[in-house]
Specification:
heterodimer; A: mainly beta; B: mainly beta; six-stranded mixed β-sheet; four-stranded antiparallel β-sheet; globular
């Protein structure tokens, strides 16, 4: 079982560039989400999805876009990268109930 | 909205000793789930322990146990016989049990960095 596969692990972007962070899970989880982790801030929710075709904004959605065309995949798009988006990004999936999240290994993104 | 507070940004413990990490939360719900996650330097998020709010019995997983005080909205993590491998960032998290999108969301505290001294 691969769990949650997140790519790339590291990325450097120039201000204004766009890119897509990939996330795929093979556990048939209905829920998927993207978090960013910044020092002293914990993990903050960017966007989430409760099933294919359904997405919604989290706590810090500005500058990011998502789509969920299949149960397995939940990519995160940075539309025009800014230095404030320098962070570690985590994709996670879950089922409802007393289930914790299964996390990807994270992407360290630096915007210069 | 629910909030989770970890009041100790950093803690340290001697190897083989016991340490307790604090977590408080704010919610108007009567039933919910609580979690502790561990994040070692590898960056991987690892589920340590979980608790259902309607269960009064405190959860235990080997050397890890919780002290769940529902009235006080407190959910502390106790690590017994601390090992060097326990050194990590620890996050407390809250999850609703009601239906809809909020049923899935985890709200995290800001974390406590635990150092284990040999």
């Amino acid at each position: 079982n691969a769990g949650v596969t997140q790519t790339p692990k590291f990325q450097v972007l120039k201000t204004g560039q766009s890119m897509t962070l990939q996330c795929a899970q093979d556990m048939n989880h209905e829920y998927m989400s993207w978090y960013r982790q910044d020092p002293g801030m914990g993990l903050r929710l960017i966007h989430y999805s409760v099933g294919a075709g359904i997405t919604d904004q989290g706590e810090v959605p500005n500058g990011y876009n998502v789509s969920r065309s299949t149960t397995e995949d939940f990519p995160l798009r940075l539309l025009s990268a800014a230095p404030s988006q320098t962070s570690v990004y985590f994709c996670a999936s879950s089922r409802a109930g007393l289930y914790g999240y299964t996390f990807g290994s994270g992407t360290r993104l630096t915007v210069v | 909205a629910q909030t989770v507070t970890q009041s100790q940004p950093e803690m340290s413990v001697q190897e083989a000793e016991t340490v307790t990490l604090s977590c408080t939360y704010d919610t108007s719900e009567s039933d919910y789930y609580l979690f502790w996650y561990k994040q070692p330097p590898s960056r991987q998020m690892i589920l340590v322990i979980r608790q259902e709010a309607y269960k009064q019995q405190n959860a235990t997983e080997n050397r890890f146990s919780v002290n769940f005080q529902k009235a006080a909205k407190s959910f502390s993590l106790k690590i017994s016989d601390s090992q060097l491998g326990d050194a990590a960032m620890y996050f407390c998290a809250y999850k609703n049990t009601n239906s809809g999108g909020s049923n899935y969301k985890l709200t995290f505290g800001k974390g406590t960095l635990l150092t284990v001294n040999p």
